[in-house]
Amino acid sequence: MDRRSFLRTVGAAVCAPLARAVTAPKPNIVFILTDDLGYGDLRSYRSPIPTPNIDRLASEGVRFDQFYAPNAVCSAARAGILTGRYGQRVGVPGVFMPDAQTGLSLSDPTIAEVLKPAGYTTACIGKWHLGSQQQYMPNARGFDYFFGLPYSHDMLPLPLLRNKTIIQNSPSCERLTRTWTDEALRFINSVHKDPFFLYLAHTAPHLPLGVSEPFRRKTKMGRYADTVAELDWSVGQVLDTLAANNLQDNTLVMFTSDNGPWYMGSTGGLSGRKGQTYEGGLRVPMLARMPGVIPAGSRTKAVATGLDMIPTFARMAGVAPPDAARDGVDIMPLLTGATNDVERPPFLYFDRNELQCIRSGDWKLHVARYNSLPWGPEPVGGRWNLPLLHPELYDLADDPDESSDCAADNQDVVDDLQSKIEAALPSFPADVRNAWRDTQNQKVFDTPSGALPIRST
């Protein structure tokens, strides 16, 4: 592949006409998504867990310091990644249960549906979790091939599917990482002459932890570390298979997580965990490699999110992203190092349909706190209900763990971010707008000791 030509048409020349990008060779795309991996769980993000293969993506590509999952829980995050839209816009505000009759909006195209007209062969291997009825499953959403589970492996009944056929019931979680890896290698070996998109969605390290015999007690750091080590082995197998097929130079490999860590795992010192809108719930590792296009050993502090995948991949494939996919932006200029930042709309943090935070630049404003604590029982009567008496403002450049509220000293920033929320809300479905109205009108909040009054609005 002509690296310089590709870089001109897709990377550094961000403003070049789309027609020029269409003539460039179409790269393969391997998107590896882990489940509940924390920001601090990789050696390249200062973890003690050895992850040499994943760290190769950092040494041979780019590390993102501020990459965000679209949501702090599984289904909504995956909806955002695959459509470039917040889950609240596409019928996925939270997590689907096995008996759910709905799924990802059929009117919103997935990455696979966008890439197929450009000649891509598409595969989803691993966890889906965007609706288990046939019309919502991968084969109906642009994927030529599906091998995996319809939802999380802690849910029952649990069928293992090859396309639409059940080939096993209740597969052992001990073998899942190896199963997904073996299938991914077979796929790469079978389609290496065509442009392909592989969405490899691991079930690890989501609980219950599953690790195969060769990796048990391998790290001597506990079962969670062993599980991460097996994920690292999987990435190494994928990279080696690409190299064996002489595809490494024409393949973008990206590695990230769907949200922050659950009961186990490390947030790297960030506050909050999975299910919460503190940074630890949504800020996740992201590494990307494409030799000759992405400078080796580079690092960016620019904000990027899972919502950016569909505009970025569409641009690489030489096709236009869906008109509706405007929550994300094309981050190829960040990948190539052509720029240190890209203009983007404010990033919004949701808990189900409740808007809780907004980030613009280095500023993050908390306006409500409806999170369920993921490590303990919910209070009697339901979730913690905490519309904030006063918005909390954090400067994430100096205070990434959100420990020092500086709203009182920056009222102009608070007002600006609140105005951005009001400007964004009309474009969201009624459920989001109504939830926001209810938050603003709420007069009490629940605590473990009972209801307390709040200031009238």
Explained architecture:
- This protein has 457 residues and is an alpha/beta fold.
- It folds into 2 domains: 334 residues, Alkaline Phosphatase, subunit A (3-Layer(aba) Sandwich), CATH 3.40.720; 107 residues, Arylsulfatase, C-terminal domain.
- Helices cover 26% and strands 22% of the residues.
- The protein has 12 helices and 16 strands.
- The chain has a 10-stranded mixed β-sheet with strand order 6-5-4-3-7-1-8-9-2-10. Strands 11-12-13-14 form a 4-stranded antiparallel β-sheet, with helices on one face.
- Helix 6 runs parallel beside helix 7.
- It is globular and about 55 Å long.
- The N terminus and C terminus are likely disordered.
Put the structure in a nutshell.
With 457 residues, the chain is an alpha/beta fold. It has two domains: 3-336, Alkaline Phosphatase, subunit A (3-Layer(aba) Sandwich); 347-453, Arylsulfatase, C-terminal domain, CATH 3.30.1120.
Order of helices and strands: HHEHEHHEEEEHEHEHEEHHEEEEHHEE
CATH homologous superfamily designation of the largest domain: Alkaline Phosphatase, subunit A
How many separate structural domains?
2
Largest sheet: 10 strands, mixed
In CATH, what is the class of the largest domain? Alpha Beta
The helix content, as a percent range, equals: 25-40%
How large, in whole angstroms, is the Cα Rg? 21 Å
Strand content: 15-25%
Shape: globular
CATH-derived architecture of the largest domain: 3-Layer(aba) Sandwich
Can you count the beta strands? 16
Low-pLDDT segments, ≥5 res: 1-23, 379-383, 443-457
Largest sheet, order of strands side by side? 6-5-4-3-7-1-8-9-2-10
Helical/strand content category: alpha/beta
Distance between the termini: 61 Å
Mean pLDDT: 90
How many helices? Answer: 12
